[in-house]
Amino acid sequence: MASEAPLGKRLNIENINPHVRTAKYAVRGELAVKSEEYRATLAKGDPHDLPFNQIISANIGNPQQLDQQPITFFRQVLSILENPVLLEKEDVLINHLGYKPDVLERAKWLLKKVGSVGAYSASNGVPAIRQSIAEFLERRDGFPANPADIYMSAGASSGVNTLLHIICANDKTGILVPIPQYPLYTASLSVLNATCVEYHLDESKNWGTDLAVIKQAHEKAKADGVDVRAIVIINPGNPTGASLPEEDIRAVIDYARQERLVILADEVYQTNVFVGEFISFKRMLRQLQKENPGAYDQVELASLHSISKGMVGECGHRGGYFELVGFDPAVQAEIYKFVSIMLCAPVIGQCLVDLMVNPPKLGEPSYELYQKEYDAIFNGLKERATALHKAFEQMEGVECGSPQGSMYLFPTITLSKKAADAAAAEGRTPDEFYCMQLLEATGVCVVPGSGFGQKDGSLHFRTTFLAPGTEWVGSIVKFHKEFMDKYRD
Q1: Beta carbons within 10 angstroms of residue 242's beta carbon
Q2: Does some domain include residue 157?
Q3: How many CB atoms lie within 10 A of CB 215?
Q4: Which residue intervals define the domain Aminotransferase class I/classII large in the entry (predicted)?
Q5: For a tag site, which of 78, 256, 353, 390 has the least CB within 10 Å?
Q6: Whole-number Cα distances in Å, 233 to 168, 208, 209, 226, 243
Q7: Secondary-structure breakdown of the chain: helix, strand, coil percentages, each rounded to the nearest 5
């Protein structure tokens, strides 16, 4: 007797985790998928149907995809860590391959501390590397750091995931998240089935924080029965590029103290600052504690950093860390347990973190080349940001604040009713429609503002300024004029 036919696949779109289904991540959404399809078409050498000959992936902060070269010192050290037998030919490395003696010294030191980059480390990271980070933090902020409070992670995203898993107890747990925001936060909260409490940044003040807006969002959430436990700050900002002044940081810390909110300070763009200076939340908290003994002792702060941004741009190596300040030791023990479930962060990424926080110093053999490469990357980013901003200034219906930091600009665009109607006919928001038309006409992939959150009635898009050259900027200007003329009311 024949057995009955199976009913179909066990998993389908209706029975998988619904919280994953509802999560959105626009940075790698429909536009990014479409751009990769175009890239594949171009790679086949059959671009006859496309009005462009290259794809500019301005949708994601992925520097080395867009021709940013790795720092020589970092990669030379890594090459030895991955293949220690190279140390048997030190003369060849130095005399024929351009390695400096301090490259070999650093590699030997790391190998001594790590053993093998193919082996697991301690769950919270290699002790010697956490010590290096603590020393870096003390140099940066002027206040000591404890290696026991530092946890290595697979990029800052992994650290955010860990912290949100610890903080979010149920669907009534609320996290204050800036809008616009990097969609990691809203997507992660969707997956955790926790509540995102949105607070809007002030575009008229270079996307600064507005304490009145934070209070209003917080009070409304509490009135709705939400247990608001933490506030996320992205500084310098993503997608806005804003760099927060001291008064904003002090105000947020003071509010967190009053309302017993954990501060999650996403500081991965701390070296990408073009205007003013980067001020860490750790430094400001310690300063407030010094000025007001005892008043800020209960404030809980978690700050995150990564090798993916800055001048390092080593996104694929997945290295980062977070530092905890003021956390209950019993909670820290649970955080350690949580990171232990994932065994450890990639050890080669941990080694890169050590190189980032402790690069060659003045007088060391590798310093001159390191500083030359670092400055070239920084100045290149600043020049392209300025060129892109100037282009936006001449485009009809586009407004954009001066570039302050990070790797992004987030201009406002004003589109006609005719354009909005055309977008609705395709089932898209006007900014999604604009960005898709831009991609199809130029090969430039940006992200609509709706992917990050924006005030009702406003339209934006986010673009990186990582791509080399300026020809692609000219193609945006040309497209925009044609688009505005085509959809003029």
Answers
A1: 28
A2: yes
A3: 14
A4: 103-470
A5: 390
A6: 17, 11, 9, 20, 11
A7: 50, 15, 40
319-340 per-residue burial string, b: 16 or more CB within 10 A, e: under 16: bbbbbbbbbeeeebeebeebbe
Task: Look at the alpha carbons of 247, 248, 253, 255 in this order and tell me if their dihedral is positive or negative.
Answer: positive
Q: What is the pLDDT of residues 171-220, one digit of tens each?
A: 999 999 998 877 788 889 988 989 999 998 888 787 788 899 999 999 99
Q: How does strand 408-409 pair with strand 461-464?
A: antiparallel
- What gap in Å lies between CA 451 and CA 432, rounded to an integer? 9
Residue among 272, 337, 278, 340 at smallest CA distance from 306: 272
Name residues whose C-beta falls within 8 Å of residue 292's C-beta, 6 or more positions apart in sequence.
Answer: none
Q: How far is CA 185 from CA 148, 163, 281, 414, in A?
A: 26, 11, 19, 27
Q: Which one is predicted more confidently, 316 or 353?
A: 353
Residue 302 domain-assigned? yes
Domain hosting 130: range is: 120-357
Give dist(CA 248, CA 239) in Å, integer: 18
The neighbour count for residue 223, using CB atoms within 10 Å, is 8
- Which element (helix H / strand E) includes 37? helix 30-43
First to last CA, the chain: 70
The CA distance from 401 to 392, in Å, is: 10
Question: Residues 163, 166, 170, 176: is their CA dihedral positive or negative?
Answer: negative
Whether residue 166 sits in one domain with residue 303: yes
Domain at 387, CATH number = 3.90.1150.10
* One-letter identity of residue 286: R
Provide the residue type at 67 as one letter.
D
* Burial status of residue 74 (CB atoms within 10 A of its CB: 0-12, 13-18, 19 or more): buried
**Residue 66 structure tokens:** 């867009």
Task: Looking at the structure, tell me whether residues 197 and 342 fall in a common domain.
Answer: yes
Q: Which single residue is written with the structure tokens 């999604």?
A: 432
d(CA 177, CA 196): 7
Decide: 401 and 232 in contact? Cβ < 8 Å: no
Q: Is residue 84 part of a domain?
A: no
Give pLDDT tens digits for 451-470: 777 777 778 888 887 777 77
Prior bond of 239 cis (ω within 30°) = yes
Q: Residue with structure tokens 């936006």?
A: 392
What does the block give as tokens for 13?
């779109």
